[in-house]
Amino acid sequence: MHPMLNIAIKAARRAGTIINRASLDLERLNVARKGPRDYVTEVDRASEESIVETLRAAYPDHAVLGEEYGLQGPEQAEFQWIIDPLDGTTNFIHGLPNYAVSIALTQRGQVTQAVVYDPSRNELFTASRGSGTFLNDRRVRVSGRSRYSEALLGAHWPKSGDIDAGGGRFRQLTEGCTGVRRLGSTVLDLAYVAAGRLDGFCGMRLKPWDLAAGSLLVQEAGGLVGDFDGEQGWLDSGNVLAASPKIFTQMLVALQPKQD
C-alpha cells in the first residue's frame, strides 16, 4: 500500500473515532447554519482539525483544502490534500447513520490517492491511481448491469425532489431508470457506485471535497466520471455523472435536452 494512502487511512480513522463518540450523545451537539439546509457542528470542525494535524505532521510541505477551514499551506504546492471531515452532516445530526469522511491527495492537480471512511459501518473505501479500488481490503468493481431500465441511481440535486431543475433534464434521467435514491452523502454515493451498490450517480453544484476522493474510487473500479456533456469539467462546474461505462453512456443520453 502506498505510504501516503496509509497516512490518509490513519487520518480518516482518527476522525471516525471523533464522529462515533459524538454520535452517542447527539442532543449535546452545537449546530450552526452555514446557509439554507447547510449545517455545521463542532464535530465537523474537530474532525477536520484531527485530519489536518495527522496529514501535516507526516507531510508538512503539503497543502490542505478542507470544507470547514479552507486552504492551509502553499497555494501552488505540488501535493494538495482535499478533505471533507463529515459529509452528510444533516444525516448525522438527525441520527441517520449515512455519513462519511473523505480524504483525497492530488499531485499537480491529479487525484492519486483516495479514502472514504464510513465510521458507523466501519467500511473503508480506498484507491491509489493505477492500483484499483478496495473495500476493507477486498477489491471492488462497478456494477455489471447494462440495461438503464434496471439501473439504481444516486443523486444530489439543489432541492429534495426537484427533478425539474435544469430545464427538466433530471426528470428525463429519472423516468428511464428503476429508481433514484437521495442518500444525503455524495462521497458515499460515489463509493457505492465504485462498489456496485449503485449503478450510477448524478450530482449538481458540488464542491471539490465532495468529488475528489469518490471520483478516483469510481475510476479505479472501472467506472467513468464526467460532466453533463461527458467532458472533464466536472471538478470546476460541480456537475457530475459517475457510473459503469454502459450506464454512464445511457445517463448522458437521458440528460440531453429533447429535440422538438
TrEMBL record:
Mg(2+) binds at E67, D84, L86, D87, D210. Its EC number is 3.1.3.25. Belongs to the inositol monophosphatase superfamily. It comes from Bordetella petrii (strain ATCC BAA-461 / DSM 12804 / CCUG 43448 / CIP 107267 / Se-1111R). It comes from the Bacteria. It catalyses: a myo-inositol phosphate + H2O = myo-inositol + phosphate. GO terms for molecular function: inositol monophosphate 1-phosphatase activity; metal ion binding. The keyword Metal-binding applies. SUPFAM superfamilies: Carbohydrate phosphatase (SSF56655). One of its GO terms (biological process) is signal transduction. It is an enzyme of class 3 (hydrolase). The keyword Ribonucleoprotein does not apply. Its cofactor is Mg(2+). This is Inositol-1-monophosphatase. Keywords: Hydrolase, Magnesium, Metal-binding.
